Amino acid sequence: MKYIVLLGDGMGDFPLKELEGKTPLEAALTPGMDFIAQHGDLGLVQTVPPGMEPGSDVANMSLIGYRPEYQYTGRGPIEAASLGLSLRPEDVAFRCNLVTIKKVDDHYIMYDYSAGHISTEEAHVLIKELNEHLSSDKLFLHPGKSYRHILVWRGGPEGIKTYPPHDLLGRDIYEAWLVYENEPILRDFLLKAMAFLEKHPINIKRKEEGKPPANALWPWGQGRMPRLEPFEEKWGLKGAVVAEVDLIKGLGVLAGLRIINVPGATGYLDTNYEGMAMAAIEALKEDIDFVFLHIEAPDEASHEGSLDLKIKAIQDFDRYVVRTVLEEATAQIGEYRLMVVTDHYTPISLRTHASRPVPFAIYDSRHPQIKRSQGYNEKDASETGLFFKTGEKLLSLFLEREPRLPEE
């Protein structure tokens, strides 16, 4: 038996008047996900424990079968694990965005959390040269992909309250910046970085081309390196992750899952959907029992506040990932169980995450009977009465086993 999880990040949403009271999932054409919902188990799962921020880090850790309320330490160290950083126990890793901050009258506004989805090539030049000019035995940067990077603070504090830049879009950053003002070492590093970036030739060229300049660093999601029991020991299955972004790859690294990198997997709407789907199938044809495939595009479109792009991202996920995997698994894998799920809501109206139970649907190739007429969406999932309080409990059902206890 093979097990496949297909996750569209941030697909959950609220009913919208522009869609006559439907959500994007209800309005989008998703025959693949609807097939799974109609021929399998449909319900809701609470991926974010009470009191925790509804981030992709927490929600995906839950859906991979762990308990973030006990094991989560921050987003930064998870992404650092993906990049192969060796951190000392006292080190703190921040996720660090290249962002665009714009001055409007006397206010500084978070104009773009991604610096216009700056290319990885441009970003690597900026990070490399920032390190050459500013790094020390206390603070240094490590390049990631596009706008997503890591800032390591040797012996830094982990308890400070930072703010994700996508939560500040269009807003004055004054209150959020006070966090850095209270940490002089970090504040001075960030101010010097802003001065350096403002004059950099890459940003001068971006402004000439009408693109948002990467004129500031924004560190957030900090923490020390967590420890997770290996997935294979916990669940008795050899697993792999197919993902575009360092966050999901980092969770895979920490869980001891094989990381499958796919050319053209960008983490945006131009990603190589079919290549990722086929990479999952090829892994399952070999020695892998479980694949977790994560697509970022719906979340990115939601943060941009674009309803059209969100619907397109959902439909592309369905057409090029869900339907491809369904077709190829049926033809090449034999018996399998497939779950489609999202990690959290990213409502268009908020442009950031919200903590609500999210829909999931599970299809078992051994039992393909029609169970219902509903589709895969928030409303239909809520009407089935099937609900799981944690991602770990849902994964236990999906994998048809109980997690192995560490002492076993």
Please provide a written account of the structure.
Its EC number is 5.4.2.-. Keywords: Glycolysis, Isomerase, Kinase, Transferase. It holds the Pfam family Metalloenzyme. InterPro entries: Alkaline_phosphatase_core_sf (IPR017850), ApgAM_prokaryotes (IPR023665), Metalloenzyme (IPR006124), Pglycerate_mutase_ApgM (IPR004456). With 408 residues, this protein is α/β, with parallel strands linked by helices. It is built from 16 helices and 13 strands. It has an eight-stranded mixed β-sheet, sandwiched between helices. Strands 3, 4, 5, 6 and 7 form a five-stranded antiparallel β-sheet that branches.
Concise summary:
Belongs to the BPG-independent phosphoglycerate mutase family. A-PGAM subfamily. This protein is an alpha/beta fold and 408 residues long.
Strand content: 15-25%
* Alpha-carbon distance between the two ends: 23 Å
**Average of pLDDT:** 95
Number of domains: 2
Radius of gyration: 21 Å
Series of H and E elements: EHHEHHHEEHEEHHHEHEHEHEHHEEHEH
Number of strands: 13
Per the CATH scheme, the topology name of the largest domain is: Alkaline Phosphatase, subunit A
Biggest β-sheet: strands ordered side by side in the sheet? 9-8-10-1-11-12-2-13
The level 1 CATH classification of the largest domain is Alpha Beta
Structural class: alpha/beta
Largest sheet: 8 strands, mixed
CATH architecture verdict of the largest domain: 3-Layer(aba) Sandwich
Total of helices: 16
User: Which stretches are low in confidence, meaning pLDDT under 50 for 5 or more residues running?
Assistant: none
Tell me, briefly, the overall form.
Answer: globular
Helix content: 25-40%
Write the CATH homologous superfamily of the largest domain: Alkaline Phosphatase, subunit A
Catalytic activity: (2R)-2-phosphoglycerate = (2R)-3-phosphoglycerate
GO molecular function, one term: kinase activity
Keywords: Glycolysis, Isomerase, Kinase, Transferase
Pathway: Carbohydrate degradation
